[in-house]
Write a structure and sequence with these properties.
The complex is a heterodimer of chains A (206) and B (271). Chain A has 206 residues and is α/β, with parallel strands linked by helices. Chain A has two domains: 103 residues; 86 residues, no CATH class. Helices cover 48% and strands 11% of the residues of chain A. A four-stranded mixed sheet of chain A has the order 1-2-4-3. Chain B has one domain: Ferritin, CATH 1.20.1260. Chain B contains ten helices and four strands; from the N terminus they run βααααβααααββαα. In chain B, helix 3 packs antiparallel against helix 4 and helix 6 runs parallel beside helix 8. The radius of gyration of chain B is 18 Å and the shape is globular. Chain B starts with 17 loop residues before the first strand and ends with a helix. The model of chain B has no long low-confidence stretch (mean pLDDT 90). The chains are: A alpha/beta (206), B mainly alpha (271). At the A-B interface, helix 5 and helix 8 of A face helix 2, helix 3 and helix 4 of B.
C-alpha cells in the first residue's frame, strides 16, 4: 500500500478542510486508476490564491510529487473556501500526467519546468480530456481557451484540440509533434520568456 | 417603486454570490503574497495563470456592467426634473442602452474564454458609487470614476486580446471602450453645466470622485507600474476628456490606495 502525503497536513491560511481534501485525493487516485504501489506527495501552496492557478508534476525515485497553488483548489465564489469541483479536476488532471510519466512513453519528456507553453498545454488537454471522460465537472471551454492562448487562435489549433479532446492515447513523441504542428501554424511572435507556472512555485523558496 | 435603492436590494438570481471588499482586504494571505517576488502583475499571456486571471477579470467586467446599468437606470428615476434636468436623464437612458449591450457582450465573451455567469463572486462597490443622493455626485462617481475605470479595464483586456492574438476579445473590448469615452464625456459635461454657478457643489462632487477613484484603485489594482494588473490608460483618458492634471492626480490616488492597503494588511497581521 502506498503512502499518500498532503502538505500542509492542516491548512491555516485558507478554509480548506484537510480531511476533505484527503478524501478528494483518495477518490481521484481511485477514479484515475493510479497505481496503488506508488507513493504520492501532494503539496499545496496556500499563500497563492485564485486566480493564480498553477501545478507541477514530478516523479522522484518512483514516487509522484504534485504541487499546486492554493488557487487551484479555491472557490472563485468564496474567498479562501474550497471548491470541490475545481479540486477534483485539478487533482485528476495532475494524476493522469503523473501516470503518463510513470507508465512509459514519456521517458524523454523534460521536467515540467522545462516544458514549452505549447507542450504543456497539449499535455494538460490530453490529461483533462481523460478527466472529462470520467464524468468530472470539467469546463471544456476553459481548457479550449488556454489551448488557444498557447497554441494559437487558428483552425489548426482548434482541430488539434478537438482531436485531443476526442480521446485516444499519446506518447511524448506524438505530444511533441502536436506542439510542433501548433508552432508551425502560429503566426504570433514568440514570447520572450515563459513565466507561466514555474515562477509561481519558485516564489515559495525565494 | 422605491427611490434610492440600496445595494442589498439589487435583483440577482441564484447564480450570483455576493462578496464584500473586506473579505479581500482582510484575507490573511495578503501579507504573505506581498513578501513573494511574483514579478509583474500585468495581465499578459506569458504571465502565470493568464487564462484564469483573464476569466476572473472578464466576470468582474460583466458584473460591473450590470451595476453600471443599474446606476444609470436609477439616475433616470431617482430624481425629479428640478434635481436633474430631463436632458440629463435622457443621456442616462442612452447610457442604459449602451450598458445593456455591454452586459450581453460580456456574457458572450465570458463564454468565449471559458467562464459563466456566477462562476465568480460579485462585489457591489461599483453600484455603491451610484447611490449618492446628489445627482452631480452620482454622475462624478459613475460617469467619471466608474466609467474611467472601465476605460482602464477595457484597454487592459483589449491589449491582452491583442498580445494573445485573440481577435474576438480585442474587437469586442475595443468597441465597448469607445462607448466609455462617451459616458465619461457626458459626466464631465453635466458636471460643468450644473455646477457653473456653484463652485462648492462642484468641489464636493470632485471630492466624491476622488474617494470613488481611490476605492477603485484598491490595493494596487490599478496604477502605472508593473505591480498593477490594470494599467491607467492615459491616452484614452485624455481622449475621453480627462486633463493631464486629473490623470496625474489619479495616478497619485492609485499609489496612495496601494500604500493604504499595505498599511491595513500590516496592521491586520500585527493585531
Amino acid at each position: 500500500m502506498s503512502e499518500i502525503t498532503l502538505v500542509p497536513a492542516e491548512f491555516t491560511l485558507v478554509k480548506f478542510d484537510a480531511a476533505e481534501v484527503r478524501a478528494l485525493i483518495a477518490a481521484a487516485l481511485a477514479d484515475t486508476g493510479f497505481p496503488a504501489d506508488v507513493d504520492v506527495r501532494i503539496e499545496v501552496d496556500e499563500v497563492l490564491p485564485h486566480p493564480l492557478t498553477a501545478s507541477m508534476v514530478e516523479i522522484v525515485d518512483g514516487a509522484a510529487s504534485l504541487w499546486f497553488t492554493g488557487g487551484c483548489f479555491e472557490s472563485p465564489q468564496r474567498q479562501t473556501g474550497l471548491s470541490v469541483a475545481n479540486t477534483r479536476v485539478e487533482l485528476a488532471t495532475a494524476l493522469f500526467r503523473a501516470q503518463d510519466r510513470l507508465r512509459g512513453g514519456f521517458e524523454s519528456a523534460p521536467a515540467d519546468d522545462a516544458l514549452s507553453d505549447r507542450q504543456r498545454t497539449v499535455w494538460d488537454t490530453y490529461a483533462e480530456a481523460r478527466v472529462a471522460a470520467l464524468g468530472y465537472p470539467v469546463r471544456v471551454q476553459r481548457r479550449r481557451y488556454v489551448f488557444r492562448l498557447y497554441g494559437g487562435f487558428n483552425d489548426v489549433a482548434d482541430t488539434e484540440f478537438d482531436r485531443l479532446w476526442a480521446g485516444g492515447t499519446l506518447d511524448w513523441s506524438e505530444l511533441e509533434a502536436t506542439a510542433q504542428r501548433l508552432a508551425e501554424a502560429d503566426t504570433r511572435p514568440e514570447p520572450k520568456k515563459s513565466l507561466r507556472r514555474e515562477s509561481l512555485r519558485q516564489t515559495a523558496t525565494s | 417603486m422605491r427611490k434610492q435603492l440600496p445595494p442589498e436590494m439589487l435583483a440577482r438570481d441564484s447564480r450570483f454570490v455576493r462578496t464584500s471588499i473586506m473579505d479581500q482586504v482582510m484575507d490573511p494571505r495578503n501579507q504573505l503574497i506581498g513578501q513573494r517576488d511574483l514579478g509583474s502583475a500585468r495581465l499578459q499571456p506569458e504571465r502565470p495563470a493568464a487564462g484564469d486571471r483573464a476569466r476572473n477579470l472578464m466576470h468582474g467586467i460583466f458584473t460591473g456592467e450590470i451595476q453600471a446599468l443599474e446606476g444609470a437606470g436609477r439616475t433616470t428615476f431617482d430624481f425629479d426634473d428640478e434635481q436633474a434636468p430631463f436632458a440629463l436623464k435622457l443621456d442616462m437612458a442612452r447610457q442604459c442602452w449602451d450598458e445593456s449591450r455591454h452586459v450581453e457582450i460580456s456574457v458572450e465573451l465570458g463564454a468565449w474564454i471559458g467562464t459563466e455567469i456566477g462562476e465568480y463572486s460579485e462585489a457591489t462597490f461599483l453600484y455603491e458609487a451610484a447611490c449618492a443622493p446628489d445627482p452631480i455626485l452620482r454622475l462624478c462617481g459613475v460617469n467619471r470614476a466608474l466609467e474611467g475605470l472601465a476605460i482602464d479595464v477595457f484597454n487592459t483586456m483589449k491589449e491582452f486580446g491583442d498580445l494573445s492574438g485573440d481577435p474576438v476579445l480585442e474587437f469586442c473590448e475595443d468597441w465597448m471602450l469607445a462607448d466609455e469615452g462617451t459616458h465619461v464625456k457626458m459626466g464631465s459635461d453635466w458636471l460643468r453645466g450644473l455646477t457653473a454657478d456653484d463652485r462648492e457643489r462642484r468641489e464636493r462632487a470632485l471630492d466624491f470622485q476622488r474617494t470613488v477613484d481611490k476605492l477603485f484603485s484598491l490595493g494596487g489594482f490599478r496604477g502605472e507600474t508593473d505591480e498593477n494588473p490594470i494599467q491607467l490608460a492615459r491616452k484614452l483618458r485624455q481622449m475621453a476628456g480627462f486633463s493631464t492634471d486629473e490623470i496625474d492626480e489619479l495616478a497619485e490616488i492609485a499609489l496612495q490606495a496601494k500604500a493604504d492597503a499595505e498599511a491595513m494588511v500590516a496592521g491586520a497581521g500585527g493585531a
